[in-house]
């Protein structure tokens, strides 16, 4: 049986993510999960919160709580967990986050969903009216900077996949539909296939989901 590492910037396990990833990877692949915040108390995690000017990340704790952290604090924690997964004999590690990070030292294949999601979206959506879902309003400007490289015809909506998600995603989808989006990208591993289906029903346009794009590429490497 093949093994793949899956590392969240929050706490593992991420059953909310695995529900969509496991069927794509298949029963012949064992998923070994790890989390950057594993073993940390809520008080310790609170100290990782971003301040003005930080690159903002949103993730989930083991109890389902949503937390906001700064990339600069998470990166060294991720590096440690990534290194341990590769040291255990795993050759492919999937990062469960679409945020932007500096390069990690890696002794194997480190799959970074942000890069995969960006390149896939650029390949099929360049120049179109692009709608983007991001978890927090605090991430809108950093998201605009990223996705304006695909098209200048851009609309970004904030909708958490973790807190009151059904209502906020429906509102975001309606906004993008009224704006006339031609293609939509859901730019967070937290967004689910069910959420994607809901957005597509409202907007009637193609929707690209980060977690399924990343897991299909992972499967390609392991087949």
From TrEMBL:
Specify the superkingdom.
Bacteria
Q: What is the name listed in the Swiss-Prot or TrEMBL entry for this protein?
A: AroM protein
The cross-references to InterPro entries, in alphabetical order and at most eight, read: Uncharacterised_AroM
Starting at the broadest rank, the lineage of the source organism is: Bacteria, Thermotogati, Synergistota, Synergistia, Synergistales
Q: Which organism is it from?
A: Acetomicrobium hydrogeniformans ATCC BAA-1850
């Amino acid at each position: 049986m093949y093994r793949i590492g899956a590392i969240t910037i929050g706490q593992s396990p991420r059953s909310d993510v695995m529900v969509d990833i496991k069927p794509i990877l298949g029963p012949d692949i064992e998923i070994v999960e790890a989390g950057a915040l594993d073993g940390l108390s809520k008080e310790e995690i609170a100290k990782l919160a971003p301040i003005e000017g930080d690159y903002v990340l949103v993730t989930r704790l083991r109890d389902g709580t949503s937390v906001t952290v700064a990339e600069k604090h998470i990166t060294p924690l991720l590096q440690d967990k990534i290194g341990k997964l590769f040291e255990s004999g795993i050759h492919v590690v999937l990062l469960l986050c679409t945020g932007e990070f500096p390069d990690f030292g890696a002794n194997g294949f480190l799959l970074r969903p942000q890069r995969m999601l960006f390149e896939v979206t650029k390949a099929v959506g360049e120049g179109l009216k692009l709608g983007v879902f991001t978890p927090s309003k605090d991430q809108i400007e950093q998201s605009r900077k990223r996705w304006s490289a695909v098209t200048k015809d851009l609309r970004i909506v904030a909708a958490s996949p973790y807190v009151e998600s059904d209502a906020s995603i429906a509102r975001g989808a309606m906004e993008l539909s009224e704006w006339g989006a031609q293609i939509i990208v859901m730019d967070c591993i937290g967004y689910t296939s069910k959420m994607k289906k809901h957005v597509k029903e409202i907007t009637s346009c193609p929707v690209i989901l980060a977690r399924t794009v990343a897991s299909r590429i992972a499967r390609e490497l392991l087949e």
